[in-house]
Amino acid sequence: MTKKQTVKIKFYSGEDIPLELHKVRVVQKLNLVPIERRLEALFESGFNTFRLNTKDVFLDMLTDSGTNAMSDMQVSAMMHADDAYAGSQSFFRLQKAVEDVLQKKYFLPVHQGRAAENVLAKAYIQKKGDLIPMNYHFTTALAHITQYGGRIVELLYDEAYNITSEHPFKGNMNIEKLDAVIRETGKENIPFIRMEASTNLIGGQPFSIQNLREVRKIADKYGLRIVLDASLLGENAYLIIQRESEFLHSSMAEVIGTITGLADIVYFSARKLSSSRGGGICTGNENIYHELEGLIPLFEGFLTYGGISVREIEAMAVGLYETLDETMICQSPQFISYLVRSLMSKGVPMVTPPGVLGAHVDAMQMCSHIPQLQYPAGALAAAFFLVSGVRGMERGSISNQRDENGNETYADMELLRLAVPRRVFTLSQIKYVEDRLVWLNENRHLIGGLKFIYEPPVLRFFMGGLEPVSDWTNKLVAKFREDFGDSL
Ligand code: F0G
To answer: Domains plus CATH for the chain?
Structure first.
């Protein structure tokens, strides 16, 4: 067994402070524009934080996708990229990194995570109504499955839907339900079982290896394949080391290898997993490789670049190895935990236990006066940007898609996600987020609802436009000025 690195650093004061284990060597200047400008920006962007211009954004907590800080080693690796349409040395370095870290021999590059989802859905959803059981959906995974005529069923345990919980593995698949669903549906109508590491939409919540082993047993019983979405695998592995007794003394490499060893196909967004751009699909099974390889030149690019620039391929290879470094991977979850615990202590309702990727505010509770049909999470995202310049992301009903009859489907949870990309923010910036959110929570009755004025048919949350149902934004601005004077 490899010796595990210890990353715990205690303060003499006894305070629980996450300490940065990196230094900052390249910086980017930020702007904090006044609240009056932020209000204009909201109207210009249809109250949709995806549509904001970053010149109006102070702390960009929209996502960790493509926004994690790269290491000096990643940036320097980009300088020795080998530009070639076919047979690039950069690709072979990446292929080796995939084999070393994810422990799968066969690798197909794709331009980002959703491209892998497209390829897998296209290859395996053979007929209308095919069912993909999963712990929980991700927006783009669902869109690709339904695009090819498939359906999904989400099989979490009830505990996962409790916003406040101390359950360490809310992302676990409900084994009894999985077995029942396969029996009822018939294995011939199930192309694969999908497991998502650090289940994104329920607050970045991990599954345990014990659970994945049980999923594997069911898969073997029925001869089904497991597809693992490994976009947030590093963080899931880190939380396993923190929370699953069997793995308390294991290294990241051991935990990651154990997880990927239980899946037939592993795909990922490299924008998350390796702090770069790009994505990939890997497998240890040569037949699977051949089932998929023809789709890569069709949709992505030649098999040795898959739509990714060679420079990013180099950064991806180094980033994959760095995923094994617990001192790197722990930074974001520790900052998230710090933020969640301090917000909770000041009365802000948060998803617990703290997960990965970001801190998640429970908009259903914070904005309980806003009906779900007026999108409480979207309203909270807009209100929080207004009072802070911090851009979060709505993860609630706006992010849901309508059903086949065009009816609104309400999300199980209405969350405002405040992403904490790796090694990007300082602790004083995190404290600013906390300060403004506590203020907004104390003035939450001033937040009002939203309604759509432009609703695209697919993935509406990206480009949709909304407006406030009343003039609540002006009241919020007036209260901000009253309490903060001429502060930005
Ligand atoms: N799977 C998961 C679990 C994801 O979180 C994402 C992206 C994807 C797949 C798709 O990958 O963006 O490279 O095409 N999540 C981003 C987010 C967009 O903000 O959570 P992609």
So the answer is: 35-64+328-484 (3.90.1150.10), 72-324 (3.40.640.10)
